[in-house]
Structure formats: structure tokens, C-alpha cells
Amino acid sequence: MAFQERVFSGVQPTGSLHLGNYLGAITKFVALQDNYDCVYCVVDLHAITVWQDPAELPRATREVTAAFVACGIDPRKHIIFNQSQVAEHAELAWIFSCVARIGWLNRMTQFKEKAGKDRENASVGLYSYPTLMAADILVYRATHVPVGEDQKQHLELSRDIAQKFNNDFGGSIHSHGYGDAFFPLPEPLIQGPATRVMSLRDGTKKMSKSDPSDYSRINLTDDADTIAQKIRKAKTDPEPLPSEEAGLAQRPEADNLVGIFAALAGIGKTDVLRQFGGAQFSTFKAALVDLAVAKLGPIGEEMKRLVQDPVAIDAILGEGSARARALAAQTMSAVRDIVGFVRS
Ligand code: AMP
Ligand code: TRP
């Protein structure tokens, strides 16, 4: 059966947004607006899988919302909202936690990384988080999901959950008139030169909100001087840049900076190396500073302007949540029938 095409993705309101979020996810969100109906979610229910200060969470939620808008997502044409305002996410997540198998969740590498050595002390939510992520996507029966490389495994799990739900409830799905499958198998969209942006201090580690060193990442709200300083201090190796992509193979820091340049400029790594092959890092970094400041500067400024008006941001979230709820309620109504819950 053909499903109506729809895009869904989410970003957690934890810490500050960085270049990895921007290049790996948010630029894709912006580009998809022209060809799809899109639903973009600030996933506050996901955020609390690790402790969040209740005095800080609202600021972080509004900042992600501001970033969506400042980067060019149009909240009138598409839906921007925060997860906790649409209760259906949590409801479908419960049903999915009864569909997903413990063995599947045990394979999730992000849980292993985040829980670390003290696994017994991690929250149950951190462990079952991928079932909530599947619910986020499938409560809108979304077909396409733009994410960075680190979310690939979670997307595969979402597909497995959708498939198992369709199989387990196949007879009921059919008898309720939904054909062979109720949920689409959502497709990950992971493309381009910056699906995994690495730390500026260590080319083998992912750029992340939780890295203790602020020099490891470029935040979307960094000003021009800070961006310049962070790029100038970024770790490199002593060789000049290679002329071909193959020459980046054993050089993670060089590969990362070239990928960042390519993604910011909207070109391929090969094009970057055609221009900078043989150049020293000092020359290349100067060009990267100019490009990064030109692209990110205006976004940071706009974010700072938008967050000064929390009432306007909350209005965007409120309106988006109402539209999201209407879609999610339809899915949940069907799911309750399919699963066999009595309604009276
Ligand atoms: P998070 O901050 O974990 O909620 O991530 C939001 C989105 O940004 C997800 O689609 C991630 O895959 C993406 N993302 C996070 N960090 C990076 C990174 N270092 N490189 C590329 N994409 C990333
Ligand atoms: N788990 C994602 C992250 O940490 C955020 C997320 C939650 C998400 N729900 C989603 C992404 C649904 C895509 C689709 O980055």
C-alpha cells in the first residue's frame, strides 16, 4: 500500500545546538520543506531520559524552536512543536514497548555509550528511548526521516517495530480496512558530506553537546570571533591538504574540516580539494572561518533575537502542537481499534 509521504524529525533540547546538529540535521529539514509536508519536533520527553534542570529545560526548548525558525523552517507551512504537548507520543511508545523485543534494545550502541559503566543506574527511559523515537515518527505515519549518522541504528529499530506491528496485528489491520500494513517503514535520509561532524579537538570523536570542552564544537549562537578562534585552534596534522578525497583516508581531522567546508558551501569534498589541494591548513582555515561566519553569523543573530520573545515562540509551539495533535489523534484512534481496546 502507498502511504502519503511525510517527513518527521526531532532534536533534543539539551545543551546548546552545534554545527553537527546544523549540518547533519537542520539544513536537511530546511531543504525538505519544498517537496514534503514536514513535522519537526523539539523532543523534550527524550531530553529527560537524563536529568534536566526544570529551571533550564524551557529555555533549551525555546532555543531549539528559535533555531528551527532562524535556519528557515516556516512554521506556517509546516509543523514545529514540542513533544510533551502531544500525549499520543507517549501512548504509542507504550504499545511499541510491547512490540519491540529486549534483544533489539540490547543492541543499541547509543545506550551503551550514554549509560557507560554505570548501566544499573541509567534510567529505564534511556534504555527504552528508541521505542519513543519510533512512536514519534509513526504516530504521524511519517515516511522519511532526516537525521545524522548517529541515529541510523535507531531508525532501523523503528522500521523493525513498524514491521512487527504490521505482522503481529495483520489480521486486525486488514479487518479494520487498512489493507496489508498500517505503518509505513520509515526511510532514513542520511546524505551529504557532513552526516557525522567530528569534534574540533579530536577527529575520532563525534561533535556533541555534552563534550566538556567548548572548543570541541561550534555553537549556533557563537559570535564571529568565537567561531574564528575555534576554527584556528582546531586540531590538524602537519601535512598540506591532499588533492583527492582518497588522501583524507587516515587523516580524521583533515577529513572533518574538509567535510564541514563542503557542507557549508553546498559542494562535494572533491570540489573543496580541487580548490585547496596542496594548501597549508593556515590558508584553508582562513577560508573556512570566512565561510562559517558568513553562514552561521546571521543564524546566531536571528536566534538571539527570537529567544528574546518567549511569548511568540510559545505561540509557534502551541499552534504546532494543536496541528500535530490532530494528526496523532487519528493514528491513535486507529491503533486502539487495531490492538483491540474497548471504547465505550
Ligand atoms: P540531538 O542533539 O542528539 O538531538 O541530535 C539532533 C540531530 O542532529 C540528529 O538528527 C542527530 O543525528 C544530528 N547530530 C547530532 N550530532 C551530530 C554530529 N556530530 N554530526 C552530524 N549530525 C549530528
Ligand atoms: N533521538 C534523536 C537524537 O538524539 C532525536 C529524536 C527523537 C528523533 N525522536 C526522533 C530524530 C524521531 C528523528 C526522528 O538525535
Features:
Rossmann fold, globular, binds tryptophan, 2 domains, mainly alpha, 344 residues, binds adenosine monophosphate, Tyrosyl-Transfer RNA Synthetase, three-stranded parallel beta sheet, 6% strand
CATH class of the largest domain: Alpha Beta
In helices, the fraction of residues equals 40-55%
Poorly predicted regions are none
CATH architecture of the largest domain: 3-Layer(aba) Sandwich
Overall mean pLDDT: 97
Which structural class matches the secondary elements?
A: mainly alpha
Say which molecules are bound, naming each kind only once. adenosine monophosphate, tryptophan
Would you count the extended β strands for me? 5
CATH superfamily of the largest domain: HUPs
Shape: globular
- In this structure, how is the largest beta sheet organized? 3 strands, parallel
How many helix segments? 14
Rg result: 21 Å
Note the gap between the termini: 31 Å
What does it look like?
With 344 residues, the chain is mainly alpha-helical. It folds into two domains: 6-195 and 309-339, HUPs (Rossmann fold, 3-Layer(aba) Sandwich); 214-305, Orthogonal Bundle (Tyrosyl-Transfer RNA Synthetase), CATH 1.10.240.10. Helix content is 53%, strand content 6%. The protein has 14 helices and five strands. The strands form two sheets. It has a three-stranded parallel sheet with strand order 1-2-3. A two-stranded parallel sheet has the order 4-5. Helix 1 (19-32) links the parallel strand 1 (6-11) and strand 2 (37-42). The model has no long low-confidence stretch (mean pLDDT 97). It binds adenosine monophosphate and tryptophan.
